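Deviations from the work plan: none for this task. Representative record:
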Amino acid sequence: MAEPLLCIESLVRRFGGIVATDNLSLDIAHGELHAIIGPNGAGKTTLISQLIGQLRPSAGTIRFAGQDVTHLPAWKRSHLGLARSFQITSLLRDFTAADNVALAAQARDGHSFRFFGNARKEKGLREAALAALSRVGLADRADVVVSRLSHGEQRELELAVALATRPKLLLLDEPMAGLGATESARMVKLLADLRKEVTIVLVEHDMNAVFALADRITVLVYGRVIASDAPAAIRVNEEVKRAYLGDQHVVTRHG
Amino acid sequence: MLLVVEQFLNGLQFGLLLFLLAAGLTLVFGIMDLVNLAHGSLYMMGAYFAATFVAWSGNFVIGIVLALGATLLLGIALEVIALRHLYGRDHLDHVLATFGLILFFNDLVRLVWGPAGLALPLPAWLTVPVQIIPGVFYPAYRLAIISVALAVALMLYILVMRTRVGMLIRAGASNREMIGALGINIKLLYTMVFGLGAALAGLAGLMEAPILTVQIGMGENILILAFVIIVIGGIGSIRGAFVAAILVGMIDTLGRAFLPDLLRSVLSSAAASTAAPALSSMLIYLLMAIVLVARPEGLFPANRR
Amino acid sequence: MKASSLDYRNLVAAIIVVGLVALPLFSQVTGNFFVLTLFTRIVIFALAAVSLNLIMGYGGMMSFGHAAYLGIGGYAVGILAAEGFGSGFIQWPVALLASALFALVIGALSLRTRGVYFIMITLAFAQMAYYVASGLSRYGGDDGLTIYKRSSFGGVINLSNRVEFYYLCLLCLFGGIFLVWRIVNSRFGLVVQGLRSNEQRMQAIGFPAKRYQLVCFVIAGTMCGLAGALLANNTDFISPAVMYWTRSGDLMVMVILGGMGSLFGPVVGAIVYLVLEEFLSQVTEYWAMIVGPLLLLIVLFGRGGILGLIGRFSRG
């Protein structure tokens, strides 16, 4: 355990004149649930996109599981064990829930240049898919087409897809976004369960969820880390209070 | 030397003509997000209108002005009747529908003007060679094309960069909702932009008419070149279309003129004369491939989000 | 609802299969050999449309240059025949290989782009192939190349026999449909369809998108190259005109007309489009003046192609 699971060092991302990620350094330890919070436009999604490989950093390095992944494409990072859920639900809408998850299992399996044989009838894939689905409580919805699932179910399916790639690190981009109170509570319970198995980075606006779940919280403002500490310490941090002052209503309401 | 200057000017003239065609295509795509394959048909119609009106009026200038107006009206009619219903639809729908329009226009022309091509004779004052530098003569008509096209390019630039309409056009290219929010009549703006594109295509067609024959399908070959140009230049970018059009015009013209000789100095004469026509027609596609490898969104990507 | 929509599709497929298989019998009995000639052409274009449907309907790759493979397959047969290689066992593998190679190069370049760029680039590359063929003065250039002897398969099958040739084409079509059917349900096919649906998601769960799309693109190109070899044998002639971009447009129309992303849709599309063309061109010389606006109307008012339409009616 010499090195943290994920090391971000002096990461910079500019969009034209705007600096969205400003010399950001951050370590994520094995097994922790690390929450990243910050007001709107703090650069949280930009950060996630760089971690997952959808956006190229302007400078800095990202190391994952002891390997420099700064310039690896998204699909290779996925094979190393980095998975994400999307802020805006991003599923294969004309596929069933089981198909969505089975494809992730198939990616994990690594043999997709098979041109014959009905993939939907492959036991291994189907079982892996059902396992991940029941993990998030969607087992009975396996054969429903995504576009017919409720919003809450789609958020859970996002999670199941990420899980099916058997990740070492799960990057969750606002998993509670748009969920009602009961659905949110279910999601918090689910995450509380999952954190026992996998390291999680959680970007979330729902402060109750964040403070209930996180081992550590990092506060991002204008692409910079202004604080990174245990929840109790963050709660009383003066700089954090200042950053959020007058911003609180926006933060909690926004989806 | 003589030949080089002449071919260079030919390349410039061809490039400018291509720009007129590509500008309309890229404007319509950038603003209305419409892929219009029938753009080449408007080019063809411009040429047919010109041949008809010049013969009818007996005056080249009057005929051309009438043809320009007719293409403009045709473009507006096309937009109002058919194409405006395609805005916001899938690009594939655009391709299919405007492909249908091409079929229609080709047969319409065959029905009205017959399958044989037309000629558009030049008036005497445009056929004289002009001495451009001592000892080098160049046809007055081609010089006229160059000047007209340059003037139109300049006007387009002023229109897009300096006027209120241009501001709307640029705003539309980057943010469709914004125009609506400003309370501007989008429908009218779109119709105007389409009409402008049609007129530009018609202008290109009627100017090319005296050089080539006016014939069915003339718009299709050149439409592909216009596609290549807006892909190289970056879809939606007028500046990109201009640079790419000149580039394509030059490379195509100079390649056809000098590649055979160039090959002959390397290969055997027989091999060279076999390879040269195929190779020179490949040149611009090679250019496109190179640009794509280096910059998949073209030289001047217009609206990056 | 799902069951009934499947039922009608199976029904349409069954009618097509039976109809196409029985066609030579019909033409024999009635002495109407024109129908056989027409349908040989239709079957060949249906194969091309089926291959286009694989990338367009299932893969979401809107290729506007698919006719290039018709030309490449055809020229492989024509050029080899002109150079004295008459055996189909040489001609056809070369036709397939050449198409695959072309697809590999074009695909690798074109797949760097997406959306409308992809449409235009595939169009432009096919047009390049067209001009190259026009420049082949040794092989007829613009005027094309007459093929004096059809591919010989050493007594296995005689391509000059109308009926035998028809059944060969039909076999190729059914083989193509079978292949597409297996592919779209395979692991590979699911990845390709997933990429059509959401490329970003597929990358995130660990699929290198371009590789799968490129392989799919090559498979489709190769299959269309086979259609090209058949076409050249059917017409005993090959010219740049088969690669002209309006031909690619025709193929697209067939796929969309029949219904994208359905197994038999392209076959329905090819039958309807070519029969309509044949029928209208007998009525009027200006048949395209009718077909053109018809396409526009189909785009504006008809969704999901003919199979979609039948489906809507069958559901009431």
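Residues 4 and 258 of chain B are 9 Å apart (CA to CA).
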